[in-house]
Amino acid sequence: MKRSSSFPLSLLVFVLIAAKGSVAATAADSMVRHVTIEPATADVPRSDTASIAQLADNRLMVVYHKYEKGKNAGRDHGSCRIWSKISADGGLTWKEPRMLIDVAEGDMNVQAPGLLRTRSGKLLMNCLRAHKSGGSSTMCFFISSDDGKTFTEQESLWKVSKGQLLQGGASSLMELKTGRLLLPFHGGTGNQWKQKNSAWCLRSDDDGKTWQKSNALDLPKRGAMEASIAELEDGKLIMSLRTQLGGPYIATSSDGGATWSKAVSSGLEGGESCTCIRRLPGTNKLVLFWNSSKFVKVHHHLGERTPLTAAVSSDAGGTWKIIGRIADDPKAEYTNLDCFFTKDHAILTYMYARPAWNRKQIHLKAAIIPMAWFAKKESSNKTDAGYGK
Questions:
Q1: Mean pLDDT of all residues in the chain?
Q2: Residue 302: helix, strand or coil by DSSP?
Q3: Between vectors from CA 178 to CA 176 and to CA 179, what angle results, nearest 5°?
Q4: 108 vs 39: CA distance, rounded Å
Q5: How far apart are CA 276 and CA 118, in angstroms?
Q6: Which helix (H) or strand (E) is 322 found in, with range?
């Protein structure tokens, strides 16, 4: 997608106006621009867990879940549905709101959509129906052959699970170089808050008609959660995990996600929060987005969800160099991350709450990060972390 490297004054004014009142000290770098995809209002207390795909005409489509006022408004167990918007300017503005997936009988909510445009041109989408019991879910799967105008529901990946299986704030559906589809998830026996979680992947080699399950990844305390995956040039897969163990953990797969190594510490410090790992386009380097907060054992989530930081690895996740902060408001919360790359930018979506941990005013936002930012920051920073450090 070809766009001018200059930033028109009119768009700058738009971003500043959109940010006023809802963002304070958000941007940690003048190269990074923060925009609002879905603002919080009295009727919409919270929107988050977004996923972006590029349409055939180069416009961008975002899907996300949007909460409603009422019982448990804005909280994980409140009512929410799947919505979409369209951007015709590379992610700076988002318009054409449309509800895609409604709640059904027996649903607590429908949440966490993942959107993927395959090399064949089809749009695939998954989302989770969390059932009212709080301890069961169904993973839905949809295909669009008309560039997102309509989605046709396919056979569910699982139905009415025993224990809450979910993707959480790191929903994703990816296509490997081989054409294999991969969907990471986690869960266990019990409800979302009290269960011990393991992480797995489902994989499909027939365009989503049938799926096979990988081995489980297990970790102490609350377990392995919210897996995010990147594919290197040689096909090796690197997974990052949310944990309660002091920061993100890393696992690898050399067989397309069928089996995974034991998860080990990335060496990066943080509380219990979402991560997002991606390969930087045009390189064999990985970038990891996470909250580089202090690990605090007495904190309810073992640390704050700020700042929002990026680290880069040149050795398949073995060691990491912290290169810079995407957002840095000490009174805010940034989490539920996803990253989509256009030709010129990374679009990092996140939920934004200020004050942190409130669930009555959560905006869905995006950081528009020029690709040049990563190279510039990497060359000027020398902070390294390695496994076990």
A1: 91
A2: coil
A3: 70
A4: 23
A5: 20
A6: strand 319-327
User: Do 35 and 15 touch, CB atoms closer than 8 A?
Assistant: yes
Q: Compute how many other C-beta atoms are within 10 angstroms of the C-beta atom of residue 56.
A: 11
Which residues, 6+ apart, have CB-to-CB distance to 288 below 8 Å?
A: 240, 248, 266, 268, 275, 276, 277, 310, 311, 312, 313, 317, 320
| Closest by Cα among 273, 247, 275, 249 to 357 | 273
Q: What angle do CA 321, 116, 335 make, to 5 degrees?
A: 45
Q: How much is the average pLDDT of 29-56?
A: 96
Domains of the chain: 23-386 (2.120.10.10)
How far the first Cα of the chain sits from its last, in Å, is 40
Give 343's contacts (C-beta < 8 A, 6+ positions apart): 1, 2, 3
d(CA 364, CA 304): 18
Which residues touch 258 (CB under 8 Å, ≥6 apart)?
203, 212, 214
Per-residue exposure over 40-50, b if at least 16 CB sit within 10 Å of its own CB, e if not: beeebbbbbbb
Look up residue 269 and give its two tokens. Answer: 């410090």
Compute how many other C-beta atoms are within 10 angstroms of the C-beta atom of residue 324.
23
Residue spans of alpha helices (H) in the chain: 9-19, 371-380
pLDDT tens digits, residue range 129-173? 999 987 899 999 999 999 999 999 999 999 999 988 999 999 999
pLDDT digits over 260-317, tens only? 999 999 999 999 999 999 999 999 999 999 999 999 999 999 999 999 999 999 999 9
Spatial separation of the C-alpha atoms in residues 163 and 159, rounded to whole Å:
11
- Nearest-10 Cα torsion for 133, 198, 46, 19: 180
Rounded Cα distance, 172 and 198, in Å: 17
Contacts of 375 (CB under 8 A, 6+ apart): none
pTM: 0.91
220 contact partners, CB below 8 Å, separation of at least 6: 244, 245
